[in-house]
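ok, trying the design again with the full structure, not the truncated one.
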């Protein structure tokens, strides 16, 4: 192992170690944009508590020396069923974030679902991470979705492996921390933010080196420049996909296609009936709808509803390898983590995402050995206790 990564492994074994450091290394407005949620912010602790409540019964007497988290997803063999989730405007939280995520994912051989609102283009990301890039799409409804379909075509031409359409942002939401910090679109550095940035010198040095980020995918449509693209994003990006547009997208995208942000089994079934290949069970990390259930509590019902017709994955609240084991025990084929990877960058800097990937993969391998399984497929056979699981009888 790279000696620096080996040292980081010893120094910062848990996400909580990184969070503590990110809090002072990032300016407050950026840290709170990352860590904030909708409304009263009950959704985020609910995600964590729900995951932590899932118990998995270990089996003993099995030789686990060869436990391996390698997993095949949509025809590619990954080092582990753990992906980096899309994070819009990631470069404002850690300058260079999109590139760093791409490089970390390629180096560790894990999926990177880069977002429409990332701060490098899909073409750049596919060049940096040719084997592991997936593309997350938001709708841009103007002109009968001309830009939506163009973005998908660009992702295809660049070599993205999987397309994921996000459904769980049907409208703007209210994030009080961003309001108090004056953090909005178009992004403007206020005097207060400059003060916060001055204290957070690791971030300030990084931004001095790399510049204030822009919505790189969008500049082709908006015209160049941070303010221009941000205004365009504010005006045009968002609103949920409806099923009719998803069906048209399905028609055009020839490779595997997922929907991200599903919580009701009936919505999962609807997606499968349109030919969608995968579902990301997610509540957007508690950032959109504060009353939504924890995504892990909806997972078993959704996995049962779609059966083997689609690949079910989970995000929202994953911060440890044992969470990945929990999700797989309840029917997921893999997970994504958002904040954990960004806290890696905020807490450590450029190597943070690689470090985080290494920590999660190692923890999953250890959790597999502790529970007596050697392949990720076997995890689904483990007995679980899941007090928060929802049941749908209708
Ligand atoms: C700062 C931030 C920005 C995000 N931006 C996007 C985005 O542009 N598109 C998207 O589909 N999801 C976005 N998400 C949601 C993540 O992809 C993912 O669903 C969520 O972070 C999972 O929860 P976790 O952070 O607890 O792992 C964002 C999340 C965060 C924290």
């Amino acid at each position: 192992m790279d000696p620096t990564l080996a040292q980081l492994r010893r120094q910062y074994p848990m996400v909580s170690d990184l969070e503590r450091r990110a809090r002072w290394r990032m300016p407050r407005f950026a840290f709170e944009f990352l860590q904030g949620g909708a409304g009263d912010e009950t959704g985020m602790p609910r995600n964590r508590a729900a995951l932590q409540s899932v118990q998995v019964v270990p089996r003993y007497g099995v030789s686990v020396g060869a436990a391996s988290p390698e997993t095949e997803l949509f025809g590619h063999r990954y080092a582990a069923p753990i992906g980096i989730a899309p994070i819009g405007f990631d470069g404002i939280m850690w300058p260079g974030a999109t590139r760093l995520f791409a490089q970390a994912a390629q180096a560790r051989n894990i999926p990177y679902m880069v977002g429409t609102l990332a701060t490098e283009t899909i073409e750049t990301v596919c060049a940096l991470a040719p084997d592991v890039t997936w593309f997350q799409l938001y709708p841009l409804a103007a002109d009968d979705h001309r830009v939506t379909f163009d973005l998908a075509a660009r992702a295809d031409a660049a070599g993205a492996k999987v397309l994921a359409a996000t459904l769980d942002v049907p409208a703007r939401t209210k994030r009080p921390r961003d309001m108090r910090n004056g953090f909005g679109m178009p992004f403007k550095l206020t005097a207060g933010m400059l003060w916060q940035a001055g204290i957070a010198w690791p971030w300030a040095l990084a931004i001095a080196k790399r510049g204030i980020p822009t919505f790189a995918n969008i500049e082709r449509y908006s015209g160049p420049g941070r303010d221009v693209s941000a205004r365009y994003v504010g005006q045009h990006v968002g609103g949920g996909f409806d099923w009719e547009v998803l069906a048209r997208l399905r028609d055009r995208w020839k490779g595997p296609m997922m929907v991200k942000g599903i919580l009701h089994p009936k919505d999962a079934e609807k997606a499968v009936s349109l030919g969608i290949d995968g579902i990301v069970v997610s509540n957007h990390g508690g950032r959109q709808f504060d009353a939504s259930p924890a995504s892990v509590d909806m997972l078993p019902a959704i996995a049962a509803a779609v059966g083997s017709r689609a690949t079910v994955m989970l995000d929202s609240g994953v911060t440890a390898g044992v969470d990945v084991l929990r999700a797989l025990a309840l029917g997921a084929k893999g997970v994504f983590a958002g904040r954990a990877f960004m806290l890696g960058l905020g807490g450590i800097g450029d190597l943070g995402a690689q470090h985080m990937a290494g920590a999660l993969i190692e923890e999953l391998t250890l959790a597999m050995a502790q529970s007596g399984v050697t392949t990720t497929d076997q995890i689904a056979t483990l007995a679980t206790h899941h007090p928060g699981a929802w049941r749908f009888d209708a």
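Keeping the full-length input from now on. The pocket of flavin mononucleotide is lined by residues 33-34, 47, 85-88, 115, 117, 136, 166, 260, 282, 284-285, 287, 315-318, 337-340 (CB under 6 Å).
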